[in-house]
Amino acid sequence: MSLSQNVPNAGAPAFGPAPVSGATPATRKKEFSPERMAKFHDYAEEYPNKRSALMMTLRLAEEEFGSVTDEGIEIVAELCNMPVAHVLGMVTFYTHYKRPFHGKHRFMVCATLMCALEGNTDAALDQIQAKLGIGPGEKTADGLFSCEKVECLADCDKPPVVQKDNEHFCSMRGAVLDKYIASLLNKEGKVESDYAGKPAVAMDTRVPTIPAHFNFTGESETGARKTENKDPYWQAGQGDLTTKVPAPLATPLTVPVADGVNGGRKPSSNGHKKGGH
């Protein structure tokens, strides 16, 4: 499955992120591992319906694939009995979900007022930049680390607040932050010189549309098919349409126009006449 920007029937997106999953229909996974499927069924039993378990099921997709991938979104949609578009809307609204464009280790630095005061946010960002060579919206070329400014992380009295993946830290600047970054580098078998001063890669975080294979040749000209019953293997013309393309709008060039003098109607372009009121 590939997520594309706005152009449903093009061979490649006109703009926006390239497809993030190379899985073909034949190789794409259809469900989670047995362990995570068992977790899903546990979650589903706790909620009034499977749709209510969506957010927890997306966490299972993170665990399964390392981030919420296109493949994971389709599995979640199937498990929770909802359209792919609805799942994608949840993932892109709640930015804490890890996406394929993020680094393996994702630094999120609070940039809201209480952390930003006295330069706390900038201090944390400057340290990350000095150690890893990345600023907000960037990741290292090897994909190991990425950095973002985020909104309030709910520990306003202990700035700056930083999250790294699912770890939450307060007062994260100076020697404490330096030591933590050093521990991550050591864990990955890296040193500062591998990153400091090296070019970073900009993350493309723009919101994609639903998967391209949920659209079909001719769809944009004839209407949109129902999201719930789309089959990626349908041929052009198959499937019910939820909308119809309207006829061209009527304009003064295509409909009778009031005379203005006699209060009647001028003849229309097809020769018919309309009488006055």
Describe this structure in words.
The protein has about 280 residues and is α+β, with helices and mostly antiparallel strands. It is about 30% helix and about 10% strand. It is built from eight helices and six strands, in the order ααααβααββββαβα. The chain has helices at about 35-45, 55-65, 70-80, 85-95, 115, 120-130, 175-185, 220; strands at about 105-110, 140, 145-150, 160-165, 165-170, 200. Strands 5-4-1-3-2-6 form a six-stranded mixed sheet, with helices on one face. Helix 1 (about 35-45) packs antiparallel against helix 2 (about 55-65) and helix 2 (about 55-65) runs antiparallel to helix 3. It starts with about 35 loop residues before the first helix and ends in a 55-residue tail after the last helix. Residues about 1-20 and about 255-275 have low confidence and may be disordered.
| Average of pLDDT | 78
- The tally of helices reads 8
Query: Portion of residues in helices?
Result: 25-40%
Please list the strands of the largest sheet in the order they lie side by side.
5-4-1-3-2-6
Q: What integer value in Å does the Rg equal?
A: 26 Å
Overall shape: it is elongated
Strand content: 5-15%
**What class do helices, strands and sheet pairing give?**
alpha+beta
SS elements, strand count: 6
Major beta sheet, specifics? 6 strands, mixed
Unreliable stretches (pLDDT < 50, length at least 5) are: 1-22, 257-277
Order of helices and strands: HHHHEHHEEEEHEH
N-end to C-end Cα span = 60 Å
Supply the key terms.
six-stranded mixed sheet, disordered N terminus, 8% strand, alpha+beta
